[in-house]
Design a protein that fits this description.
With 51 residues, this protein is mainly alpha-helical. The protein is built from one helix and no strands. It starts with 11 loop residues before the first helix and ends in a 13-residue tail after the last helix.
Amino acid sequence: MRPCRRYTDRDGQIMYFYLYLSAALVTVRQLIQRARKLYRWDTRPTTKRLK
């Protein structure tokens, strides 16, 4: 993860908002990937779009 190089706003709450938002997106993505492997059944069709 790259540091916030071009952060020009002086309000620290906005920076924390973006950090928490990115952490939430990473967490949700990991949960989706784990659920896809755990709850897959044999006859379920697969699509390349969901990789």
